[in-house]
């Protein structure tokens, strides 16, 4: 290709030979200057002089390159560029600001090379400067945005730490409160038994009231035990080791531990796809116990409960599902509150509203997520996504 | 912790007396490349990078700790103890001149001589003191640094280290000699330029050479005079060179000045 160019060139266009190196230097679309190794200016092109507003004789041999920069650039040049030029012979893309004669500031990007004499001693520095006015504005916007992002990040981190601290404080408050309440309530239960044994009641309504009192006491005790568990379980889990749990025998064991009740033909277990899970045993124990006992508790009256526990893979993530054919609930209305502490949707069924809150916490602690589907009168399904 | 690794300490040369060279702000131990080899024949030459610079362990840079120059001085003393050095000659450029002073005040027995290259005990002007700068000047320097760090994010540093055995690749990376983590450089700049070590100067008991450049924007000539007046046993030599790095711009006269100072032991000590 180059051979072809050589033959074609002379005849093409006379303007091709018009470029004058002298004129190119003086009026190039960038600033040129040459300096002694200490920065003393010895030659500048017209473009640079025009930018600066100085006459040539005001600068040559009178000022140094670094004196044309604003003070920040001058310091940077002395500490960074001057050593680099000697150490590596060049610097590139250094961002400075020129101070023009009339005081205006011109942002420039500087490249420089060091020429040495035949003995290897520094001889002169050649410098190219590019006007980057618009680019500098853009860069400063970027810098500001970066600073803001950094500030936001720090704020978020502080808030996060604060929230974590508050959460821990709340947990220990709940723990202490439930612990301190337990003893007096046990005392009350004991006193009531004693009271029943020694007192004589004449009105049959009295017996009923005593019974209600007893029930209320039991309810308080359960709530307190639940609260203790809510705080204690996740704490224990922080130290608990992950292990591979064989789901079939493990789930059968949990079913056996449920309240004594007719559970024959109720459960279907299918762990064929994912037979094991890597999780803390005690966490899985609590999760399954709560979900399965809920499924039994909220069975549709008059209908044989059917509960299916199964696993599958969804996008490589194991999903443990517990499906029942119980009462279900209005997911539109209550879905958002389902996992909240003390929130209950079936007041006619005994319970304190802690189980699902605990399940949610344990799943989250295991790095997982929980989803729920439900239809009134049809049943409820919980899906636990447990990344391994 | 291995302090020699932390500060990328390199030891060379022959001789029993040690000569420790410490670089200033903006670069690393390579700054001594034109000066240190001249002393290898007679001294045990120790080069190092301050924590946060060069190939030091950047993870060791705790900005709370290194918010004081004294922390760098403690690092120097740790290195000297690790190498079992005493009676050493300390050569510090710019901010490291003050780091050397702090170390010598703390452990005078470890130091035989101090050579302060382009030192300044305080960069900001004060009542009846000319440091050369006002606070907005330093802010502008930090801004210039920010403008220049846009291009070389912290991610560049590991690349440079990764290519240490392949210089042809390193050369392609701009200004790689003095690259460092931008956040650290910014912090170190602030610590350097806002420090005030004037009160420490009269506490120095070690014979000291002050090498002042004739035209140095960072350390005006008056600063050299102030140091000479405040440090008891000191000599002031003004080097006929411009800029802030005589060990690079005028290595021969720098070497000569240091040699002359080291060779006239008895004269200086008896002052």
From TrEMBL, chain A:
Source species, domain of life: Bacteria
Keywords, in A-Z order: Coiled coil, Kinase, Phosphoprotein, Transferase
Catalytic activity: ATP + protein L-histidine = ADP + protein N-phospho-L-histidine
InterPro entries in the cross-refs: HATPase_C_sf, HATPase_dom, His_kinase_dom, HisK_dim/P_sf, PAC, PAS, PAS-assoc_C, PAS-like_dom_sf
Segments forming a coiled coil: 135-169
EC category: transferase
Positions of the Histidine kinase domain: 176-388
EC number: 2.7.13.3
One annotated GO molecular function: phosphorelay sensor kinase activity
Domain PAC: 92-144
SMART domains: HATPase_c, PAC
One Pfam family of this chain: HATPase_c
Protein name: histidine kinase
Organism annotation: Hymenobacter roseosalivarius DSM 11622
TrEMBL record, chain B:
Keyword Transit peptide recorded: no
A Pfam family the protein falls into: Abhydrolase_1
UniProt KW keywords: Hydrolase
Residue span(s) of domain AB hydrolase-1: 18-250
GO molecular-function terms, A-Z: hydrolase activity
InterPro entries per UniProt: AB_hydrolase_1, AB_hydrolase_fold
SUPFAM superfamilies from the UniProt entry: alpha/beta-Hydrolases (SSF53474)
Family membership noted in the UniProt record: Belongs to the AB hydrolase superfamily.
Name listed for the protein in its UniProt record: Alpha/beta hydrolase fold
Annotated source species: Hymenobacter roseosalivarius DSM 11622
Lineage: Bacteria, Pseudomonadati, Bacteroidota, Cytophagia, Cytophagales
